[in-house]
Design a protein that fits this description.
nine-stranded mixed beta sheet, 26% helix, alpha/beta, Ribosomal Protein S5, domain 2, DNA repair protein RadA, DNA-binding, 459 residues, Rubrerythrin, domain 2, 3 domains, Rossmann fold, seven-stranded mixed beta sheet, nucleotide-binding, zinc-finger, damaged DNA binding, 24% strand, single chain
Length: 459
């Protein structure tokens, strides 16, 4: 029997090539093409019957429906439920990714155990660890009494057959790269296997009404390993991230069909597992009583919750011909723009100075409202003038040097009040912000006003 002609599939982007080459012409990655057999997907129409086969007619529906939405499954892990949009939706598929060792398995084991203790039927299927390893982790976390159904398996046919016979509320598969289907000849973790196994698990979730959580590995660039089509198949894509050397972990939703994509869940990693952080502001703020020059507290918004975080800046004379710009936790392009505005509009020169900017605690900030806080930290460090201890800063800066208003000002004000801050440096507050309740508000419309107030210590 003649062998089917082989194809070469890129393991980075999933593009198909007719012959091997050292570099993928689609994504530009080197040494990512692997040989895979040409096989038809399950359920495909054979070429001989395709010409005479007729598709069935479609029956269209309207937008109105009398069927109520199914109730969400509350797992008992409030931060996880928050990111999901208020709980896990039955019949949904969730892809969870993260760096190796960040705590994905620990998080999902806690979700499975607490959901099972609340009466849900939970299945935890691991393709990377043995059952005894999972039991040891559950005992260390104090969750060994939870009625979770454990299994260690990688064969997709066996997993699907079991899940179709028994009814579960949530099924966790750790990880999708370890599953393999006997329909395809390629090995586990290949593009063909990942695409096929993910498609079958999503199909099972939709037909059986089971919420499926798939764990996905990430590449060196931080992207989900495997083709991008896997992210399009699922209903939600979540990322579990954390900086090395910091105990906290952040759960983000990059895609969510049943909730917001800007929500975050904050956890703290300890000896007995993950602990939910109900007040992230206390985690990201410094503990010192006296504020040094170059530090400013920023009132940001992450999803629906306000978060206070300290932005630190250091401006020092450059020892080399080319000044250095180092940024941690913020956009480097935004810093370059801010330095240009300070030099062109305010007369502060940074051409012969090294500039270092850091977001304390390792948090990543993408909000334009952090412009004024970063500028205040840079001005404070350059002039060696500290900001008041109880001062909170937020606002967006334009290229002309104006300080622009930002949204959710009342939420930022309430968070500052709750944590005992008594001073606010920001653009003029809208009337909807309400009473300041003892918080002194210093309004600034131009960046030059901020430089003047910091230099003269006048707030």
């Amino acid at each position: 029997m003649a062998r089917d002609s082989a194809l070469y599939v890129c393991q980075s982007c999933g593009s198909v090539h007719g012959k091997w080459s050292g570099q993928c012409s689609s994504c530009g990655q080197w040494n990512t093409l692997t040989e895979e057999s040409r096989s038809a997907p399950p359920g495909a129409i054979k070429p001989s019957a395709a010409a005479s086969a007729r598709g069935r007619g479609l029956q269209f529906e309207t937008l109105q429906s009398d069927t109520p939405e199914p109730p969400r499954i509350t797992t008992g892990v409030a931060e996880f439920d928050r990111v999901c949009g208020g709980g896990v939706v039955p019949g949904s598929a969730i892809l969870l990714s993260g760096d190796p060792g960040v705590g994905k398995s620990t998080l999902l084991l806690e979700v499975a155990a607490k959901a099972a203790l609340r009466g849900g039927r939970i299945a935890y299927i691991s393709g990377e660890e043995a059952v005894e390893q999972i039991r040891a982790r559950a005992k260390r976390m104090g969750l060994d009494q939870a009625p979770v159904n454990l299994a260690a398996a990688t064969a997709l046919r066996d997993i699907l057959g079991t899940l179709k016979r028994e009814q579960f509320d949530i099924v966790i598969v750790d990880s999708i790269q370890t599953l393999w289907s006997d329909v395809h000849e390629s090995g586990p973790g290949s593009i063909t296997q990942v695409r096929a196994c993910a498609g079958e698990m999503v199909r099972l979730a939709k037909t059986q009404g089971i919420a499926v959580v798939l764990v996905g590995h990430v590449t060196k660039d931080g992207q989900v390993a495997g083709p991008r089509v896997v992210e399009h198949l699922v209903d939600a894509v979540m990322t579990f991230e954390g900086e090395r050397g910091y105990p906290f972990r952040i759960l983000r939703a990059g895609k969510n069909r049943f909730g917001a994509t800007d929500e975050i869940g904050v956890f703290e990693m300890g000896d007995s597992g993950l602990r939910e952080v109900a007040n992230p502001s206390a985690l990201f703020l410094g503990e010192g009583k006296d504020r040094a020059p170059g530090a400013a507290v920023f009132a940001g918004i992450e999803g629906s919750r306000p978060v206070l975080v300290e932005i630190q800046a250091l401006v020092a004379p450059s020892a080399y011909g080319t000044p250095r710009r180092a940024v941690v936790g913020w956009d480097s392009g935004r810093l370059a723009m801010l330095l240009a505005v300070l030099e062109a509009r305010c007369g502060l020169g940074f051409g012969d100075k090294d500039v270092y900017l850091n977001v304390a605690g390792g948090l990543r900030i993408n909000e334009p409202a952090a412009d004024l806080a970063a500028a205040a930290a840079l001005i404070s460090s350059a002039l060696d003038m500290p900001l008041p201890q109880g001062c909170v800063v937020f606002g967006e800066i334009g290229l002309s040097g104006e300080v622009r208003s930002v949204g959710r000002a009342e939420a930022r004000l309430r968070e500052a009040q709750k944590l005992g801050f008594d001073h606010l440096l920001c653009p003029p507050l809208p009337q909807s912000a309400g009473k300041t309740n003892g918080v002194k508000v210093t309004s600034a419309t131009r960046l030059t006003d901020v430089v003047e107030r910091i230099s003269q210590n006048r707030y």
